[in-house]
Amino acid sequence: MERFDSIDLGNYRGDNYFLVGYVEPDPSDFDNYNPTEDAENYGWSLVQKAESPLDENDEIVGMDTRHGQPHLDKEYLPPDSDEEKKVWLDDGYSFYRMRDYLLQNWQDFADLHIYHNE
C-alpha cells in the first residue's frame, strides 16, 4: 500500500505519535483522487514514532479494507493475548471516517499500547 496522507499528533505521555493514511494501488493523480471511491483498498494506522531513526516505528492500531471488509487491527495486543486482534466493521467506514475515528480515539489506543507493552 502507498502512503497517501500523514497527520502529526504530537507528544503524548513522553512519546510522539502520528496517523498515516494509505491506499492501494498507488494513485497517479493525487489532486483528483478520492480514496473511498478510487482505491481498491485503503486504511489508516496510528503509529508511535521511534526514538531513533535507526529504530522502527510501532504500529498501535490499524483500520483498513483489506480482506474484503473494513476492520480494525489491535496491533497493541501482545502475541499471547486471548483477545481477538481483528474487529470487523460495517461497510460504512470510508477512508475519512476511519481517519476521524482514529483522531477521536488515538489517545485511548496509545494508553492500551502502553498498558500491554510497557
β-sheet strand percentage: 35-45%
Helix content: 10-25%
Strand order of the main beta sheet, please? Answer: 1-2-3-4-5-6
Q: What is the ordering of alpha helices and beta strands?
A: EEHEEEEH
| Rg, alpha carbons | 14 Å
Shape: globular
Distance between the termini: 29 Å
Helix and strand content put the structural class at: alpha+beta
Largest sheet: 6 strands, antiparallel
What's the overall average pLDDT, rounded? 93
Runs with pLDDT <50, length 5+?
Answer: none
Region (Disordered): 60-80
Biased composition (Basic and acidic residues): 64-80
Question: Which descriptors would you attach to this protein?
Answer:
118 residues, 6-stranded antiparallel beta sheet, globular, 36% strand, 6 strands, 2 helices, alpha+beta
Describe this structure in words.
It is a single chain. By secondary structure, this protein is an alpha+beta fold. The chain contains two helices and six strands. Helices cover 23% and strands 36% of the residues. The mean pLDDT is 93. Residues 64-80 have a biased composition (Basic and acidic residues). Residues 60-80 are annotated as: Disordered.
